[in-house]
Design goal:
This protein is 55% helix and 20% strand. The chain has 181 residues and is α+β, with helices and mostly antiparallel strands. It is globular and about 50 Å long. The chain binds protoporphyrin IX containing FE.
Amino acid sequence: MKGIVFNEFFSLVDEAFGAEVTEKIIVDAELANDGAYTGVGNYDTAEMVRLVKCLHAETNVPVADLLQTFGKHLLGIFKAGHTAYFESCKSLFEFVRSVEDQIHVDVLKLYPDAELPHLTATQVSSDELSLVYRSSRRMADLAEGLLWGAIDHYGETIELTRTELPDVDGDQCAQFTLVRR
Ligand code: HEM
């Protein structure tokens, strides 16, 4: 997982719970590099999982909620850095359909070692889109938060439902259904 993701996580924890909590979880999570991440470096996703678990221990907020909140925050950060993507997609469905084939493809060009999920978007009808998430990183909660962030950005009335699917070769799989109202 990219260092930028860790650094954004720390700034959100600073903001939401205070710098002392950030420092405490960095110590508790026993990180290899004492919490120093360079933006373009690649780090073990297990460190993020440990950090989120320590934050849960510290705050009592469920892990899933923490990851979803973080995903929503991350979408805002991506938006600030890549406004062109958001401007070129005129609707939420267009944006979500472009993540796998365009956005994450560009991410890989920029960072060939990026670890990205498989996202399969299917337009079920004009008002319904299905997105299937699959990844060994098991970050469907983060994906859900990113989706909520995108829903907020486009300001459309969307009903989002999530269905857990069975693991495939140890990868977490989940289906998100987005219905426009
Ligand atoms: C709703 C839209 C999006 C969804 C659902 C999504 C989903 C995800 C998820 C769940 C991950 C964590 C890795 C994993 O689970 O395997 C990830 C990583 C990432 N995504 Fe996306 N993403 C979205 C939009 C974007 C956008 C707009 C950008 C940038 C413009 C972006 C750039 C990245 C980057 C840089 C990573 C980190 C790769 C790494 O740590 O190695 N994503 N994405």
